[in-house]
């Protein structure tokens, strides 16, 4: 009987190659250079400029800018509302995606089109629509203008499609035979969803949640008419940043923008950790 021998040097080389990957070709290197240059021009350099502007007058001035009572109130309102809206989007967006993929009903195609309206509609028009429905002269008899509920509703409107559109294609590609096999072995519907479906959907759900949160904290247009932009009550960070720019205070505007950048990055990291744990558990 013969046995295969493995050369130690070759084995180590293979492991090193598996870790580092193949060396870049000239074409690949050129593509990587163009991609990184484009990414730097559009993202890295502008972000670095914002951070540099925020810290131009030192940490003391930066801290004073973000702890100002009006600024701090706008940050709390914006981030808190965005977190709540993201949680709602995760649940309702996944539910809507499930209905669109797994069920057949009259008006399904119309619903598919309606889901994308917040994508196509200019945000100022969305604000006008919401004000017409939920303003003082709205036909529903519900007036939430100039309240924090208006901020929540505006965020909810513009972020609705993100989770739906990230979860829907993944859900459509899931193998139904795996679910049927689990059911034949006695697994309950909850167990099938929790152990089979959810781990597969988690990357899409977290991606949609990150997009929803980022869209929420940056929203401006749909809030202008409905929320009233009242300081300490309904003023969000985007309005606060614009006010600082209009008052020729770029440092304060950059400071608020930097805080939002850090918060958004932290949220993305947390969602990524949740995604990894859920997938590993599944």
UniProtKB/TrEMBL annotation:
It comes from the Bacteria. Keywords: Membrane, Sulfate transport, Transmembrane, Transmembrane helix, Transport. PROSITE patterns: ABC_TM1. It is a multi-pass membrane protein. Residues 1-20 are annotated as: Disordered. Residues 75-271 form the ABC transmembrane type-1 domain. Coiled coil: none annotated. It is found in: Membrane. The chain crosses the membrane at residues 29-55, 75-101, 113-137, 149-171, 192-214, 253-274. Part of the ABC transporter complex CysAWTP (TC 3.A.1.6.1) involved in sulfate/thiosulfate import. Probably responsible for the translocation of the substrate across the membrane. The complex is composed of two ATP-binding proteins (CysA), two transmembrane proteins (CysT and CysW) and a solute-binding protein (CysP). Belongs to the binding-protein-dependent transport system permease family. CysTW subfamily. This is Sulfate transport system permease protein CysT. It comes from Dactylosporangium roseum.
